[in-house]
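[job 4417] fold queue: 2 targets
>>> target A
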Amino acid sequence: SLSQRRTESLKSALDKMQATTKSAQRCSDQLASRAGRLGTLTGPASDASSMLSHANANLAATLILMRDAREKFDTVSDCEPAIERLHRGVLTLEDRMMRAKGEKNASGDGATANKLPASQRLNLTEQDVYAAGDSMEILRDAYRYFA
């Protein structure tokens, strides 16, 4: 009869719904399991990525500091000739003063103290003194930078 066919049809549809629900539940459980495994894999990778980003930022900052330090070092190296020239000029002045006074060295042999070879004597100019002064300021700034 018609009502028995409808009942069987409904029962068949209900069986299909139950089977589909069980299949969907299995798929959902598998998806949740895979998502959990994926989470355990991406968590450490995300942490490592964060640490690498932080290390990259530190390396960039260190590179900037190293470039600045290298520039300071090069600037200090450029100061050496001016200071060396001032030093030789001062030694020349001391030598002249000793000769003018006629002071003798401790051995008493008549040679003047601090006698410089002629090749190392130097007459300082105002420009030499200013250059040495500027160099001393650069050295002071470099000392403060590195200290």
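>>> target B
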Amino acid sequence: NDRHTREMDSVKAMHGRMASDVKARDSQHAASGSKIEQMETALAGVVDRHKRELADAHSKISGLQGRASEDKGRHEEHVRSLLANEKETRDLHHATLKERVDYLEGVLGESKTKHDQELEVLKNAHVAHAKEAKASSSRHATVDERLQRL
């Protein structure tokens, strides 16, 4: 009996230790559960903040893309305007240049005609002068002959 009592006491002591171990584990488990809940709450906060920051980043990117597109449109319009102005200036210069060339061609054409007429007058005068010189030299010869006769 004594043996039975000792074994019962031993079983009761073991049971007591096991019960206290179970309570300790339950307490640790409860603490672990609480820590896990805290971690989940913190993680949920981080995830929510990340979602907001990502949405803000996407919004900023969309805004930048819109502004870039507007800037590109304004730049293209400005370049087209510059090209149109340059073309207009060049066309005016070309028109002025063409008018100037036409004027010069006209003046040169008139000048050539005038020079041709003056050259013809000079040729005729030269021919007449040559005839007079020939006639004069023939008269001079006769004057020389007359002087020799004297």
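[job 4417] complete. Note on B: The CA atoms of residues 54 and 60 lie 10 Å apart.
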